[in-house]
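Example complex used in Figure S2.
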Amino acid sequence: SQTIHQWPATLVQPVGSPLSLECTVEGTSNPNLYWYRQAAGRGLQLLFYSVGIGQISSEVPQNLSASRPQDRQFILSSKKLLLSDSGFYLCAWKGRANEKLFFGSGTQLSVL
Amino acid sequence: SQQGEEDPQALSIQEGENATMNCSYKTSINNLQWYRQNSGRGLVHLILIRSNEREKHSGRLRVTLDTSKKSSSLLITASRAADTASYFCATDATGAGANSKLTFGKGITLSVRP
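Predicted assembly (226 residues):
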């Protein structure tokens, strides 16, 4: 069966520090991968999605970047965190022939 | 920007009552989905309805879709305290495929009192 792993669960980082959040999927191949951010009261905002290795689409201009070095690995990064980067980050995947998303358990990022 | 907008923003009911949540959207869709999120956790898919469908059932869940009004409703019957969570509608303009992506609303906070 397919599973998605996302870590860490919580992260407290100072302003100006780098960021790396990792997400991996098991039990499937060639998935679509997504990074969402959830701010309090604002729902989920799609940040990046990827349809294949090295293929990244950015949905909003921001201080973050994403990479997909392997088929089932999706990484969210920043060189210098801002206070506004705080939020709950969710990784998700779906199969090409499916419509529903499967989410990871999320990372609560606090930038202080 | 959000495609789906849920209504109400918060709902508090007694256990055993029915909970109705509404979602409106702006552009044409291939399908509409409802997800549930327990506090501090990831979202879990509940039910999907396609643009050519009007109603679907899954256990205690009933979802309707009115494409002429660009709206959907989620009904949870005989609610339980364990149904307490946030509920999100999400729209998909393209359906399955390489460029498929979901746009989520802000969510509805449902509290079911024991």
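The radius of gyration of chain A is 13 Å. The interface with chain B takes residues 6, 32, 34, 36, 41-44, 46, 49, 51, 59, 88, 90, 92, 94, 96-106, 108 of chain A (CB under 8 Å).
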